[in-house]
């Protein structure tokens, strides 16, 4: 009788086991489905955020008055850039202190947007000051002034910075 009971219990457990396994499989499928839905929602949210950012920029900085200023480092320069200050028509529009990661990105050819703002059509004075250290470790500070002519449409200006001893100007202006 005992053997019969053991056999019956074992048969009952074996018969119920596929039901338990299929319930786990359904749960896994449901979880995978939910994960996919969450990823889709995240992608849509990121897309909406990017579209809102572009719309905000268009509203805040219309192309007729937009001025964007960028900074990059001269190729092969070992100058350690610490800070940059930019003035437009005598007013400080950007100050930036550089982290190690930002400096490395610039050394690898990166370009940083330093400022986007509105200016009237016409001629404007730009002044940029850079502070850093030369490869020898001495402090280095250099300023340069430029005139730009803002026409209808966005104006994009890049400043290419170089340390002392490079066979070029320390600060060059490049229009896009």
Fold and architecture overview:
The protein is of the alpha+beta class and 176 residues long. The chain has 2 domains: 1-60; 66-175, Sandwich (Immunoglobulin-like), CATH 2.60.40. It has helices spanning 2-60, 100-107, and strands spanning 66-73, 80-88, 91-97, 112-118, 122-133, 139-150, 155-161, 171-175. The strands form 2 sheets. Strands 4-1-7-8 form a 4-stranded mixed sheet, with no helix packed on it. Strand 2 (80-88) and strand 3 (91-97) form a beta hairpin. The longest helix has 59 residues, at 2-60. It is flat, with a radius of gyration of 31 Å. It starts with a helix and ends with a strand. The model has no long low-confidence stretch (mean pLDDT 84).
List keywords for this structure.
flat; 176 residues; Immunoglobulin-like; single chain; four-stranded mixed beta sheet; four-stranded antiparallel beta sheet
In the CATH hierarchy, the third-tier topology of the largest domain is known as: Immunoglobulin-like
Q: What is the CATH C-level name of the largest domain?
A: Mainly Beta
Number of helices: 2
Helical/strand content category: alpha+beta
Largest beta-sheet details: 4 strands, mixed
Summed over residues and divided by their number, the pLDDT gives a mean of 84
Name given to the CATH architecture of the largest domain: Sandwich
Through-space gap between termini: 93 Å
Q: What's the alpha carbon Rg, rounded to whole Å?
A: 31 Å
Contiguous uncertain segments of 5+ residues: none
Q: Helix-strand pattern, N to C? A: HEEEHEEEEE
Strand content: 35-45%
Give the helix level as a range of percent: 25-40%
The outline comes out as flat
Number of strands: 8
């Amino acid at each position: 009788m005992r053997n019969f009971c053991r056999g019956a219990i074992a048969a009952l457990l074996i018969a119920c086991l596929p039901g338990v396994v299929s319930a786990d499989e359904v749960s896994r499928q449901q979880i995978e489905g939910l994960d996919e839905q969450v990823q889709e929602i995240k992608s849509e949210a990121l897309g909406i955020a990017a579209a809102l950012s572009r719309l905000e920029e268009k509203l805040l900085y219309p192309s007729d008055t937009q001025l964007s200023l960028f900074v990059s480092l001269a190729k092969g320069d070992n100058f350690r850039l610490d800070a940059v200050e930019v003035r437009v028509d005598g007013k400080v529009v950007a100050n930036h202190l550089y982290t190690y990661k930002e400096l490395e990105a610039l050394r690898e050819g990166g370009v940083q947007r330093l400022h986007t703002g509105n200016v009237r059509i016409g001629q404007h004075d730009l002044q940029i000051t850079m502070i850093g250290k030369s490869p020898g470790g001495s402090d280095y500070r250099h300023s340069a002034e430029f005139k730009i002519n803002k026409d209808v449409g966005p104006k994009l200006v890049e400043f290419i910075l170089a340390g002392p001893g490079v066979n070029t100007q320390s600060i060059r202006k490049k229009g896009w």
